Amino acid sequence: MSRILTLLLAFGFASTAFAQSASPPPSNLDGDWRGKSDGGSCNAPLDYVLHIESGIVDGSASDPSVKGPQPNLKKAPPPVPGAGLWQIYGVAKGTSFSLQALASVQGNSRRSGKLNVSAQGNMLTVTESGGCGRTARLARN
Fold first, then answer.
1. Which residues contact 45 (CB under 8 A, 6 or more apart)?
2. What's the rounded Cα separation, in Å, for the pair 1 and 42?
3. Per-residue confidence (pLDDT) for residue 52, from 0 to 100
4. 132 has pLDDT over 70
5. Over pLDDT 70: what percentage of the chain?
6. Residue 79, pLDDT score
7. Digit-coded pLDDT (tens) for 55-108
8. What sign has the CA pseudo-torsion 29, 47, 83, 132?
9. Which residue from 14, 21, 43, 100 has the highest number of Cβ atoms inside 10 Å of its Cβ?
10. Pair 42, 63: CB distance under 8 Å
C-alpha cells in the first residue's frame, strides 16, 4: 500500500512539473510604446499605444478628432463615420515585422489593414500599407 502511495505522489509531482509550460523568452521589444502618426493622405493623425510582451503585440490607435453622433438639423443623410478606433495585433519577430489593424465601425463595413513596423534603436516606425499611408514613430514608455 505504501508503494502505491509513493508512486502516486511521484506521478502527481511529475505531472505538475510537466504541466507548467515555460513562457517564451522576453523580447528586446517588450514594453509599452506610444506615439502619434502624421495625417497621411486623409489628414487624420492617430494616437498609437502598443504593448509588447514576449513578442506578442496588442494595442490600439485612435483618432482624437472623431466625435460621436451629431444632431442632423438639415435632415440630410448623415456623413459616413470614419474609423476612430483601431485594434492592432500580431507577433513581433526581429527588427522588421507586420501587424494587423481592425477598425471599430458599426454596420457591415469591415475595415482592416496591414501595418509594417521596423525597430531602430529605442524607436518603432509604424507605416500603413494602403489606406491613408500614415507613418508613426513610437517611443518606449
1. 36, 37, 38, 39, 63, 64, 134
2. 77
3. 95
4. yes
5. 77
6. 60
7. 999 999 998 877 666 677 777 776 665 667 899 999 998 999 999 999 887 667
8. negative
9. 100
10. no
Helices (H) and strands (E) in the chain, counts: 1, 8
d(CA 95, CA 97): 7
Please give the Cα distance from 90 to 1 (Å, whole number). 53
User: CA 63 to CA 89: how far, in whole Å?
Assistant: 18
Locus of grid cell 451629431: 70
Grid cell in block for residue 71? 444632431
In the chain, what are the domains?
24-65+81-140 (2.40.128)
Residue matched to cell numbers 477598425: 103
